Retrotransposon protein, Ty3-gypsy sub-class
Amino acid sequence: MRKRDDQDGQDVVVGKFHLFCLCVFTLFDPGSTHSYICSSLVLPENVKCVGLNYDVLVESPLGYQVMCNQVYQDCPFVIQNLVFHADLIEMPFKDFDVIIGMDWLYKYHAVVGCRSKHVTFKDPTFSHIIVKGERSVTSILFLRPWQES
């Protein structure tokens, strides 16, 4: 686990989107295997967390590590008035409200454009959607599944 440096952060897109009718600061990161939600985000009361069958080790940019094993399943993530569902692992760090990783990008055939800072969809159903990033991010979390030795 390490803090991503300037070159690593070139393939991410940042923007504000809606989740459960909340405006959330979101990072699209193809370098992350899973998608995450900040544990301090206040969600509707009827939204429940369930346990994962595995642990995920998450490290902050300052080097703090935490094991995550709770997930919010099938969360409605809204982009340009279309609902996309995401399974979001709960994490305690507050750099972003939501991090969209490869699990979601793969599910929706989405591609992050490094130079253009856009997310585009290869599925014809969503090909008209282009997510434009608000700004570049050069220092982000590096996330990967925890693997026991």
About this structure: The chain has one domain: 8-145.
